[in-house]
Amino acid sequence: MTLLFKCDHTDPEPWLAALADQMPEREVRVFPELGAREDIEFALVYEPPPGLLASLPKLKAIFSLWAGADHLASDPELPPLPVVRMVERCMTASMTAHVVHQVLAFHVQALDYRTLEVERHWQQLDLTAPWDRRVGFLGLGSLGGDAAEKLAALRFDVAGWTRTPKEIAGIGCYHGSGGLSAFLARTDILVCLMPLTEATQGILNRQLFDQLPRGACIINCARGGHLVETDLLAALDDGHLGAAALDVFAEEPLPDDHPFWGHPRIVVTPHIAAFSVAETAIESVVANIRRVEAGEPPLNVVDFTRGY
Ligand SMILES: NC(=O)c1ccc[n+]([C@@H]2O[C@H](COP(=O)([O-])OP(=O)(O)OC[C@H]3O[C@@H](n4cnc5c(N)ncnc54)[C@H](OP(=O)(O)O)[C@@H]3O)[C@@H](O)[C@H]2O)c1
User: Fold this and answer.
1) Overall pTM > 0.85
2) Does the Cβ of 196 fall within 6 Å of ligand 1?
């Protein structure tokens, strides 16, 4: 078995070291050194040139080097093979740490206490027990599902909204357009962890905000395209929303003159909520290669018709 590796945006050395460590018996070729194309059975790639994957006659599966697979969907000659998105334990653990941090910060009113501290003003604000703080996840997939479970373990009142029905112990499950209003009405801290698709583009808008209780907080760790930025600013400025923590933006890097910078009720982080490291990412790729070689379908295959 030969694997083709292609990525121009990262140092290949840790990836090649992890592949050599975890698949010592396999050959790895680094693009553009293809050698005999008929040897290549798996491709681990980011932004392959259009037509490259179609030119590999024995290819069995395509692995995206990053969480998203849009860089593959844009290849007009993408062969009809399983495309596997990156789901791996470092990405999941880092996203969960980020989301738990932002939820806890809103829960303990960190922004308000920071302001009071700067003013040297000793004031105790109303306290809320974790089980009286309702956290709601838009998306309970590999990332939202893990963070939701961890917050439920911390005794928060956790629910999630998904496209298809779910049953998860300890988490209130809502789904589809019929379930959205009831889900929003019971949510004090809303976390967006959905893929960006036609159905979810601009979902964080004024109409959705108005269905949240007054003072609700927003955490967006998914994609900038989910949020209508002007609607967020208006809802914060008129006091309907309490605060927002944003990791992703319509334009990245966030422009210097953007009103989110320095806004007293917005926490900005520069798209760092979750990250992969070669060692754990390759663990997940190797496990999937072993499944394919055992005749089983790979896990985490992208369904391009539903958009994720
Ligand atoms: N900020 C960062 O650093 C960073 C890093 C990695 C990823 N991300 C973002 O995180 C997103 C989520 O990743 P993931 O791995 O958790 O994705 P995932 O496993 O595919 O889960 C997606 C979840 O969203 C739900 N969903 C999708 N479309 C929906 C719709 N129209 N209505 C209601 N629910 C819908 C799905 O519902 P079903 O369960 O019914 O399918 C699923 O629960 C990614 O797409 C990416 O944008 C951000």
Assistant:
1) yes
2) yes
